[in-house]
Specification:
The chain is α+β, with helices and mostly antiparallel strands. It has ten helices and 15 strands.
C-alpha cells in the first residue's frame, strides 16, 4: 500500500484513524517567549488537495475540515483530554431533566469576521440547512437526522419528488432561537452524547443573509463572501494552489500569535518533500521511498521522531496549545504501516484551529508530536466521536 492511499484513509474522516506511521519531525521542547519568536509568523503547510467546499454544511474530508475548523467555530469544543465538550461559541448550556431539551447560551461577544454578532438564529439556520435534503450535507446522517426532533424522516425525502414537503419538514424540526443569545435543540430521545455533536465543526453557525446574497453554492467560494466566526478567516483563495488564513480580529477569544497560515495544495509527495528541503514548507509527509534516506541523513535524522499517530496535520485542534512547548525546527512527516490507531495523549478534537500559544520559532514552524498508543478513541470521546469528520 503506497503513501497516497494511506493518506486517503484518514482524509475521509479524522476519527477513522487508520494509519500507524513514522513521524519525521523536529521536537524541541523549549518554551516560547516573545524574544525568541521568528519575525515572520507565517506557517506554511500542505493540505494536499483543494477543498471542495468551505461551507460547514458541505465539508466532508479532513483537508476541508482542517481549514473549516480554523475559520468556523461550533457551540462547543472537545477539551484536551478528550473527556468532555466545553464552551466555545456557546458560553454555557443546560439540559432539561428528561434529557430532551438542550439550551445553549451564545457568548455576548461572539462575532462574525465582519463584526456582526453571532446569534441563536444563525445556528437554527445552519442546522436547518444541514437537514435540508436539497443541500445533501455529508453528515446530516447520522449526526443530525438521528438526534434532532422531527428529523427522523430526512432520509425518506427526495429533494426533487418531495420538494413541496421540505419546507414543512424544516419548520417542524426541534430547532429554535427564543432570543438572539439562545439556541434550543429538542431531541428525539435523551442523548447524553449530543454534546459531541454540538462540538463538530460542521455544526458551526451560518449567516442566512450572506447565503441569500451570494447563493448557497457560492457564498463559501471567495474571501469577501466567506463570513465565518472562528479565530481565523480566509484572506486568499487561489484555486489548485493555496488558501491563506489570517487572524479574525473580531473573534471573541485571544488572538493567535501566528499571523498567517498558507495551506498549499500539493498532491505530489515528492514535490512537497522537495519544497520542504528547500525551506518552502514547514511540514511535509515524507514519501515512503525516502524514509530510509531521511533516517540516515546527518541533518534530517536529527529532525526525526518515531510515533504512532492518526491525523497528524490537525496541529491546533484544541486548547492543548495553551500549555504546550514550542518546537524549534521544521517538521517532516512520513507514513510507515497501517492498522487501527488507539489514543492515549492527544490534542485531537473536532474544531481544529490554532490557538493563542501557537508560535513560530527559529524561522520555522511550530508543530508538536502527539502520541496515540493505548485506549480506543471511543473510550475518550464518546460514541459519536468514532464517526467524526
Amino acid at each position: 500500500m503506497d503513501d497516497s492511499f494511506a493518506r486517503f484513509r484518514w482524509l475521509r474522516v479524522p476519527a477513522l484513524l487508520t494509519v500507524v506511521g513514522l513521524l519525521v519531525a523536529a521536537c524541541g521542547t523549549s518554551s516560547p517567549t516573545t524574544s525568541n519568536l521568528a519575525k515572520d509568523q507565517t506557517l506554511r503547510v500542505n493540505i494536499v488537495t483543494e477543498p471542495n467546499s468551505l461551507d460547514p454544511g458541505q465539508e466532508q474530508y479532513s483537508y476541508e475540515g482542517s481549514i473549516g475548523g480554523m475559520i468556523s467555530e461550533p457551540l462547543l469544543h472537545v477539551n484536551p483530554g478528550l473527556t468532555d465538550a466545553v464552551p466555545a461559541t456557546a458560553a454555557s448550556y443546560s439540559v432539561s431533566s428528561d434529557g430532551l431539551t438542550w439550551t445553549f447560551k451564545i457568548r455576548s461577544n461572539a462575532k462574525w469576521n465582519d463584526g456582526k454578532p453571532v446569534t441563536g438564529a444563525d445556528f437554527v439556520y445552519a442546522w436547518q440547512r444541514i437537514l435540508d435534503p436539497r443541500l445533501a450535507a455529508p453528515y446530516a446522517d447520522p449526526f443530525f437526522d438521528g438526534t434532532v426532533a422531527g428529523a427522523a424522516d430526512y432520509a425518506n425525502l427526495d429533494p426533487t419528488k418531495d420538494a413541496a414537503k421540505i419546507p414543512d419538514f424544516i419548520n417542524g424540526l426541534g430547532l429554535s432561537a427564543p432570543d438572539a443569545s439562545t439556541f434550543v435543540v429538542k431531541l428525539q430521545a435523551a442523548s447524553p452524547f449530543f454534546k459531541w455533536i454540538a462540538s463538530l465543526w460542521m455544526s458551526a453557525p451560518v449567516r442566512k443573509d450572506v447565503v441569500d446574497q451570494y447563493g448557497s453554492d457560492k457564498w463559501a467560494t471567495a474571501p469577501n463572501s466567506l463570513i465565518t466566526n472562528g479565530p481565523y478567516k480566509v484572506s486568499e483563495m487561489v484555486s489548485k494552489d493555496h488558501i491563506t488564513l489570517v487572524p479574525n480580529t473580531n473573534y471573541w477569544g485571544s488572538q493567535p500569535t501566528v499571523t498567517k497560515i498558507i495551506n498549499y495544495e500539493i498532491s505530489d509527495d515528492n514535490q512537497a518533500y522537495a519544497k520542504y528541503l528547500n525551506g518552502e514548507l514547514d511540514e511535509v509527509n515524507v514519501p515512503l521511498a525516502n524514509t530510509q534516506l531521511v533516517k540516515n541523513d546527518p541533518v534530517l535524522s536529527k529532525q526525526i521522531k518515531f510515533a504512532t499517530y492518526g491525523d497528524e496535520r490537525r496541529f491546533g485542534t484544541s486548547d492543548w496549545f495553551r500549555t504546550s512547548p514550542s518546537v524549534n525546527f521544521r517538521c517532516a512527516w512520513g507514513f510507515a504501516e497501517h492498522s487501527a490507531v488507539t489514543i492515549d495523549e492527544a490534542d485531537w478534537a473536532p474544531r481544529g484551529f490554532v490557538r493563542t500559544n501557537l508560535r513560530l520559532q527559529s524561522l520555522s514552524a511550530f508543530l508538536r508530536v502527539r502520541t496515540f498508543k493505548s485506549a480506543p478513541l471511543a473510550q475518550h470521546a464518546g460514541p459519536t466521536a468514532i464517526a467524526l469528520g
